[in-house]
Amino acid sequence: MPDEQEITDPDVDLDEDGTPDMTQGDMKCVNTVVGDGQVAVKQGTNVTSVDSIKSIDPATIADTKNKPDEMLLGLISFKLTVDNPGDIAEVTVYLSKPAATDAKWYKYDPVNGWQEYPYAAFSADRRSVTLELQDGGFGDADGLANATIIDPSGAGTVTAPAPAPAPAGGGGGGCFITAAICDLSMELGFSPVVTLALGVLLVSLVGFGAGITLTRINQKSA
Description:
The chain is an alpha+beta fold. The chain has helices at 172-188, 192-221, and strands at residues 27-31, 38-43, 47-56, 75-82, 88-95, 104-109, 113-116, 120-122, 128-134, 148-156.
């Protein structure tokens, strides 16, 4: 891991097993370059060792297609050695800050770009995520069944687009007519109740007239 990202605080225990993360042989942890936090990767099924780990700032990646809008602790790039070439491995990534409830796990590599990673399961408290990765297959950035898995990924969220403003009033004609009635009522000093009644009456008459016109058109067509 980069020296500037090395954790030296013995109180950091992201997996809460009572042992400082920096001294555990089955995991590696770093201080993140964004989010002022820590991330640890702990080996699981079919993993011989976690060989390296590095925190990456997503802002340094120019490719923005499908990129999450926010990544609380940035990307974490790690390298695993698995027991046998082609193995499906499992690791747990621990986060010093809980991921948002709508956060998903995203991967990035220069060939495939940004992708939502489906083989990820967040814990109930959102402070850890279990990943499945296959050597030479899904989740392995080098694409080779060589007993080594490289995985740059992290928790990210996408901001939903703002909803379109609702149209004012009913249909376009009704809105125009209602506005005209309001202007006239204000000039004549009518009360709001009288104004509303006039508006309803006039819109109804317009609708009735449109219905008669449509009936005549249909009769001519027949």
